[in-house]
Each structure stands twice: as C-alpha cells, then as structure tokens.
Amino acid sequence: MSTDNPENTEHPDLQRLRRWEDSGGTWVVAARRAMSSGETVTLSLMTCDGGEEMDVFSSADPVLVEYVSRDAR
C-alpha cells in the first residue's frame, strides 16, 4: 500500500490505481474526454507484462487525472 497519504484521504479511484501499481500491474490511458466540469480519463488496467487488459474504469477525479497525465505510460 502507498504511504504517500497516511490519512488515506485519496479518492477511491486513485487508491484503486495505486493498489494496482503496488501489485505490479500496469495501466494505460485508453481515453480522455473534456467535460464542462473537467477532464475524465478511462484507464485500462493491464497485467504486469502489459499483455492483457484485466479491467477498465473511468474517473473525473482531478487528482487522478493529474497523476495519470504526468505519469502516462
């Protein structure tokens, strides 16, 4: 588990992505959509070797959007 936020106040979507990374999984940004309220990203959660998509989810959480924007894979 990530220790970057000891109070565990991160948005559940960012927690989900960090758990995936901590487990060795990889991810890719599958889509981005600009909305009047901000940006929404869709992430594909991939196996550790990046060979198979295991799950997909979308989020409009601004912290998650910023996180994947600076660390896009």
TrEMBL record:
<protein>
    <recommendedName>
        <fullName>DUF2188 domain-containing protein</fullName>
    </recommendedName>
</protein>
